[in-house]
Specification:
It is built from four helices and five strands. It has 139 residues and is of the alpha+beta class. A hairpin with a 4-residue loop joins strand 3 and strand 4. The protein starts with a helix and ends in a 9-residue tail after the last strand. Belongs to the NipSnap family.
Length: 139
């Protein structure tokens, strides 16, 4: 009964909701608990239809450029829901370390080539900064 009342109350606050079933890229790290404090960046890419294999092939080579500081948390793609959607989850100590880490990737030979080949595959992209709750295993 309490749950039904909660659902009814929640429905008055909820404007919209979307669900996705995601699979992880085989070449990416599996998300594991982390010591904090960290902030997380969730980058979402909506790709052009028919480009997922090309995206995956490029990132399978490019992920090595972003493993140095263990910032790569997980890489996922949509299987159900809106298709051709990719999510990359990155961990950083703070916004300053995010900037330094991203700039360091540009200084590595080969990173620019990855960007060159993947940017044309993107329709839209979004970046969100998230701070974990105390109960999250990702701190």
């Amino acid at each position: 009964q309490e749950y039904l009342e909660f659902r009814k109350e929640r429905s008055r606050m909820l404007l919209s909701r979307r669900n996705q079933l995601l699979l992880e890229f085989s070449f990416w790290n599996e998300p594991r608990p982390r010591q904090g404090p960290n902030i997380y960046e969730l980058r979402t890419y909506k790709l052009k239809p028919g480009t997922m294999i090309e995206w995956g092939n490029n990132w399978a080579r490019a992920i090595k450029y972003r493993q140095e500081n263990q910032e790569a948390v997980g890489g996922f793609f949509s299987q159900i829901g809106e298709l051709y959607v990719v999510h990359h989850l990155w961990a950083y100590r703070d916004l300053q370390s995010r900037e330094e880490t991203r700039n360091a990737a540009w200084r590595k030979r080969g990173w620019d080539e990855n960007v060159y080949y993947t940017v044309p595959l993107i329709r839209t992209m979004e970046s969100r900064i998230m701070i974990p709750l105390r109960i999250s295993p990702l701190q």
